[in-house]
Amino acid sequence: MHRHYRDMTQKQVMLSLKQQGRTQSRSWQAIALEDYDSTFLSMSIKRHYQKWIRLIEQRRVPSEHDIRSQSRFACSILLAAGPSINNEEVLKAQLNQSLASLAEQSLAPTQAVLLLPSEANVGLQEWLAEWQRELTCLQVVASDAASIAALRVEALSQAEWDWVWFLQPGDRLANHALYHAANIAKDHPEAQALVADEDSLDAQGIRHSPLFKPDYNADLLLSMPYMGRAVCYRRECLTRLSFEVVDQRADDANWLDYAQALELTRQDAFSSSWYAHVPHIAYHGMQREALDNYVSLVQHHLDQVQAGVWVGDGLLPGTQRVRWPMPDPQPLVSLLVPTRDGVDILRPCVDALLERTDYTHFELLILDNQSTCVETLAYLREVEARDGRVKVLRWDHPFNYSAINNFGAAQAKGSIIGLINNDIEPMEGTWLTEMVEQVSRPEIGCVGAKLYYPNETVQHGGVILGLGGMAGHAHRFFQREEDGYMGRLKVTQNLSAVTAACLLVRKSVFDEVGGLNEASLAVAYNDVDLCIKVREAGYRNLWTPYAVLYHHESISRGADDTPEKRARWLSEYAYMRKTWGELLDSDPAYNPNLTLVHEDFSLR
């Protein structure tokens, strides 16, 4: 499980441990025990963040040589104090925090511009002169701008360098923020925005609530302003922003940040190259009241992208649900349900699919893999006769999940394939409507649903690559009412993979990537392999919390509890590591500061 020893043989692990022992002048046994113990350690974001700062973050100090190597990074810090701050002492205290964070940067800012209302500029003139002696790059500009939006436009006219970073009074950059930004900018010369991780400060200045963000996630950005405030922009791209919608919220910095991010996605609609992630806490924000509703902003954005899109309130304050137009005519969906005997499992699944699905334009192909149970065979005959949408297809070969579904897909009449386990039960009727709307978008590949165990805990909140060395289910065992990390259990988002227990994909995409791998992945990981192939073909995989179903996981197949099953699993694991090893350990929908051992988004 330890990231240092992934894909190593036992001999290679021993060599690595002994080399570390020599380098550290310690016994290799002590290092081995520490690393072994660390794979069981779970550091909760809520309870152990201060410990993580001490043990992990404070060890990541760049050397003087590293810092000097990034000296060409030229950044203008634009600090704008809006007219709404009318208490001089409060303003002074907040500015003190922000300016101190600039003075303490390991890589000094090239320019810092402070825009102040004219009256405040006069009152703080002597105090600011002291700061200018301390921070020689600081320019103070008196402004009569009436809103934060107007201040930003004016600040941009003062910026002289390639990169700009907007701050508000009280916000602080972490000591190595500009160094980390420079490092990422160097590796991503095409980037227009550097998006860093961030946290918040309480009234005593204690850091809390870290936001460890994913890489560019287009559908998550439509669902919530996850990019936050820790964003460093190329100046030239900001000068192209129209600010068409800012009049509605011209004094709301959060609204302006979100508007900027959305407009950048329109400028580079078919590429994520404008976005580079800085996987370090680079920004400490003051707690401010969040806007409850961004619906009109996202609706305005999408109206310029595609007709017929509807945006409404999401499941959490400050989030949105986006409904995409249903194709006309409605596409036929072919739901593939492999089964063998087990009528007590199959009957509730099939009956629920037929009775609890509002989207009726589907065929249900039951793929019978050598059933012999009299009651099961009788039910298959009965349900096929009862409902014209049901067809039973016989697969008379040894169990191979991939081959069975490839067989079913070849017989399917629908333009959309649905991979459905025989232990799935819809919880409400709109599940398939939501998934069809999403999968019909040309840029979307596989679409997954939110699945619950019968005890109402989460079974599937999407798949995170790298968990447990391979892949795991995000937020597994979380309670039904929980929001998940950063609210991600309740927002639509792009993920690298979703489970085939309930997965929709257009048949053309399924065929394009060669379907499921029946030669190397007969039972396990075939859905992860399929999703990675689809992602690598240029599509975005998606998970939605608006399609919810129960999943009685692996009841029908049973556990891998025999030597033969264990050998098969090890073979499939080895295939995945050999084929996708590098991708498995760097999931763009996750964050390198989060654990690869547990499924709870705890700290690494």
From TrEMBL:
Glycosyltransferase 2-like domain mapped to chain residues: 334-513
Pfam family, one: Glycos_transf_2
InterPro entries assigned to the protein according to its UniProt record, in alphabetical order: Glyco_trans_2-like (IPR001173), Nucleotide-diphossugar_trans (IPR029044)
SUPFAM superfamilies in UniProt: Nucleotide-diphospho-sugar transferases
CDD domains for this protein: GT_2_like_c
Name assigned to this protein: Glycosyltransferase family 2 protein
Organism whose genome encodes this protein: Halomonas dongshanensis
Organism ancestry: Bacteria, Pseudomonadati, Pseudomonadota, Gammaproteobacteria, Oceanospirillales
